[in-house]
Design goal:
It is a single chain. It is built from 12 helices and 15 strands. Helix 1 packs antiparallel against helix 2, helix 2 packs antiparallel against helix 8 and helix 3 packs across helix 8. The longest helix is centred in the first third of the chain and has 20 residues.
């Protein structure tokens, strides 16, 4: 009873601490930075985080189960596996498809994976790390997603998978991509890290492919600090992902469980002694990429806010679009993919060719006025030092990708951007164009 009383007192103190430590502040346009992204939280995240630390159950426990259950309910799937980052989730998604357990569906070195070069490196890196060959297609300026008409041209006898991100929350053309993946019996992997809550034809992105990934980095729709997840439709494939995530072990018992398979001491594996403890049998060369209980505690609280976060993102996007539509002689504004309802990661802008200013002129002006901007990640990944010499194929040109590399940037839409901040950002765009 004494422990319970002390815990209750700690909870009350946390609520008081939150109010003192993180008071709401009025926006000061002369001093405050308008970040492109950031973590949004209240005392609930702090309460969960401290509660988990008081249990001192550092690996997966009750908050992990709670977080997973909320994610599975959200996506309406049976299998969501938590990881330590979205990049790790991408690594697991591709690496799982190299498992010998997939027999003739196993990806092998030299197999080809269709993707794009206009994106984030952790979509491409797992393809290269698994000795697969990325096949690059160009993207459309406006949606910033793959040009679907070029997909079939990229198919060869070695093509085994398509791995694409829903760029900045904007779904790629799922009808076209699914049609090609089904026609040629290809794996489809969705990088859903920037698109949690986006829908295509009324269905959530992250639920169309064989595997999808998510990220809970502070810039994303919800955060656990570092963290991510893998979303898997098939139970057997989920076991393979779990194996690679959990050191490569063959056992799929959850933390604290024993003998889920009912054959812990009665199986033969490789040249191990018969009945070798299944908990210490390794069927893959894996990693340890699990999430901690304390991260999951934050994630569970964040899930309760996801719907409101997404509504604010959509509302902020509309306000920016309406405000910046006056400048379409100079700017290409973002375009939602047909049939989609994006939960926009950001507001992406491309500067049209003109003789008055460049992207760098505009973003320099915005940053001088404390408005954060970011480029579309790596621009053209094939021009990045790490990827210049990788084995790859390009189908057609990457002209749009190169144009994006030189002329595209984004500002934030996350729920920390208030009405006052939006008005300030728009006023600075007006000032910039008035001074041309």
């Amino acid at each position: 009873m004494k422990v319970k009383k002390i815990r209750s007192e700690i909870h009350d103190l946390i609520k008081d601490y939150y109010k003192l430590k993180f008071p709401s502040k009025e926006f000061n346009p002369d001093k405050d930075i308008i970040n492109y992204a950031g973590r949004i939280f209240n005392e609930e995240e702090l309460l969960n985080l401290v509660d988990a630390s008081l249990d001192f159950w550092l690996t997966s426990g009750r908050f992990t189960e709670e977080f997973v259950e909320k994610l599975e309910d959200f996506y309406n799937v049976e299998n969501v596996l938590l990881t330590n980052s979205g990049s790790s989730a991408n690594l697991l998604a591709i690496t799982a498809l190299t498992s010998p357990k997939l027999a003739n569906k196993q990806l092998r070195p030299g197999d080809e994976v269709i993707t794009v070069a206009a994106g984030f490196p952790s979509t491409l890196a797992p393809i290269v790390q698994n000795q697969l060959i990325p096949v690059f297609l160009d993207v459309k300026i406006g949606t910033y997603n793959i040009i679907p008409e070029r997909l079939e041209v990229a198919i060869s006898p070695k093509t085994k998978a398509i791995f694409l991100a829903h760029t900045l929350g904007n779904p790629f053309d799922m009808d076209a991509v699914k049609q090609i993946s089904e026609k040629y019996d290809l794996y489809l992997i969705e990088d859903n890290c920037d698109a949690m809550g986006s829908t295509y034809n009324g269905e959530l992105t992250g639920t169309f492919g064989h595997i999808a990934t998510g990220s809970f980095y502070p810039a994303h729709h919800i955060t656990t600090g570092e963290g991510g997840c893998v979303i898997v439709q098939d139970d057997e494939l989920a076991k393979i992902v779990k194996s690679f995530r959990d050191w490569g072990r063959d056992c799929y018992c959850e933390s604290g469980e024993n003998n889920t398979c009912g054959k812990r001491f009665s199986q033969q594996f490789g040249t191990l002694p018969y009945g070798y403890d299944h908990k210490y049998v390794y069927s893959h060369i894996g990693y340890n990429l699990k999430m901690t209980e304390m991260q999951a505690a934050i994630g569970s609280a964040q899930m309760d806010k996801l719907d409101s976060f997404n509504e604010i993102r959509k509302s902020n996007f509309k306000r920016f679009y309406n405000g910046l539509s006056h400048f379409q002689d100079y700017l290409i504004l973002p375009e939602a993919t047909p049939k989609s309802d994006p939960s926009w990661f950001c507001f992406i802008i491309t500067v049209k060719q003109n003789d008055k200013f460049t992207r760098n002129d505009l973003v320099s002006f915005l940053n001088e006025n404390r408005i954060e901007t970011r480029n579309l990640f790596a621009g053209n990944l094939l021009r990045q030092p790490a990827f210049q010499d990788i084995q790859h194929k390009v189908i057609g040109s990457l002209d749009n990708t190169d144009y994006i590399m030189n002329n595209t940037f984004f500002i934030g839409t996350y729920s920390g951007i208030t009405d006052e901040k939006i008005e300030y950002v728009l006023s600075k765009f007006y000032t910039f164009f008035q001074e041309l």
